[in-house]
Specification:
This is Restriction endonuclease. By secondary structure, the protein is of the alpha+beta class. 37% of the residues lie in helices and 25% in strands. The chain is elongated, with a radius of gyration of 32 Å.
Length: 414
């Protein structure tokens, strides 16, 4: 990433250009996306791949741990031929006198090679120090008969080094913050090309032979010194594209359910005695009115039966459960029940939580905490809503088979 570096001279922040190094790092990430086994890429959840590449190519800025510094001293011979306070007849060769060497060692975190990277701002007289593993070493030699007060020198040098580190900060923040978007773009572009290629190959109507030299597995490079993130596990079996229910249709189904709550609020007497089954029937009526009678109740699917199911042909495209709030334990069981129903094709799911007699804030807090603690939880989705949340879960059988789970809490009259 940073190229060849001559570290013996002790000059810092001047060996190579940080801007070019960051450009090379971004280019290396793009190349790795392009080299990744095609089926491995297609079979891995895109967001997981994005997170992997963003973590792998992130560059950690240097942070000096000055609260952990320490000093070491020992005897040495010091060359004093250039000492203006001494009379030296011939300075063409070393003039050695007894002295001492003091080494101030400052541990640090971050990429050690950044000590040799010149940022957008710099001076013509950069600081000097030696980098040894995870320590910055400031070395001072003094003759025994003329010891120096080193503390001002140490403070001055460390101040200069920290100034250079601060000059690098904006460049590193911009690089690291831009990695997720750059990774997403590279992944999406290659996925689109691979899927188009797959469709064209299928249109030929001729069996496609797999190359003998096609990679079956993928090895994560281990050249970086920091702990490399693990590539998300995924199969390299041939990827079969599957159609998915459009997100706008999913949002439309959710809106229909939300509109039903307005009816409940306006006619509380009509709903106050209804149980889960009766409430579900009202949602089914509205959904069938919008989706051509494809919404069914108590439909058998995988390991059990679910409350509301929308089908397109032979595919389950939407699954919803209707549950009264009975505490976190019962709610977790509802999530498990939903995951038991869902196949990997069921990318869009909802749990409708009917609340009677409990503070809405208490229910929302319980819902959020229980959901995040679930073993299948992957991440939160930004979905601003005053009485609901949206998450991404993975299917029971495969972490790369992701489903969206939207949770809506409705107040039901009692």
């Amino acid at each position: 990433m940073f190229g060849s570096i001559d570290k013996s001279k002790g000059l810092l922040f001047c060996t190579h250009d940080l801007s070019q190094s960051l450009h090379n790092t971004a280019a290396a990430m793009h190349k790795e996306v392009e080299r990744l086994d095609a089926n491995r890429l297609l079979n891995t959840a895109p967001d997981d791949l994005r997170d992997y590449f963003a973590a792998k190519y992130r560059i950690e800025p240097i942070r000096l741990l000055r609260d952990q510094w320490y000093a070491d001293t020992h005897e040495t011979q010091v060359d004093v031929r250039y000492d203006s306070n001494r009379w030296i007849d011939d300075n063409s060769s070393p003039v050695m006198v007894p002295g001492e060497r003091v080494e101030v060692r400052v541990p640090f975190e971050g990429e050690a090679e950044l000590f040799y990277s010149k940022g957008d701002r710099f001076t013509i007289n950069p600081p000097r120090a030696i980098v040894e593993k995870n320590e910055l070493v400031l070395r001072y030699d003094s003759p025994a008969d003329a010891p120096r007060n080193l503390r001002p020198l140490v403070d001055h040098t460390l101040g200069e080094i920290e100034q250079y580190i601060s000059w690098q900060a904006d460049m590193l923040v911009a690089h690291n913050n831009g990695l997720p978007a750059a990774a997403t773009q590279a992944i999406e572009q290659r996925r689109a090309r691979l899927l188009a290629q797959s469709h064209r190959a299928a249109a030929l109507g001729i069996p496609i032979k797999r190359r003998d030299d096609a990679p079956q597995t993928y090895a994560v490079p281990t050249t970086r010194k920091k702990a490399a993130p693990a590539l998300p596990p995924a199969s390299t079996e041939p990827y079969t594209p599957e159609p998915a229910w459009a997100i706008d249709q999913y949002e439309q189904a959710i809106k229909i359910m939300q509109d039903m709550t307005l009816v409940m609020e306006r006619s509380p007497e009509a709903f106050k005695t209804m149980d889960e089954e009766a409430l579900r029937q009202h949602f089914l009526v509205q959904l069938n009115g919008q989706f051509e009678g494809k919404a069914t109740g108590e439909t058998f699917n995988m390991e059990g039966k679910t409350d509301i199911l929308l089908r397109e042909g032979e595919r389950n495209v939407f699954i919803a459960e209707c549950k009264f709030w009975k505490g976190p334990k019962a709610f977790r069981e509802a999530i498990d029940q939903l995951l038991g129903y869902a196949t990997w094709r069921d990318g869009k799911t909802v749990i409708l939580i009917f609340n009677r007699g409990t503070e809405t804030s208490t229910v929302l807090a319980g819902v959020d905490a229980t959901t995040k603690a679930h073993a299948n939880f992957k991440r939160i989705v930004d979905w601003p809503h005053e009485s609901g949340f949206r998450y991404v879960f993975h299917a029971n059988s495969d972490t790369n088979r992701e489903l969206i789970l939207t949770l809506l809490v409705f107040h039901v009259p009692k």
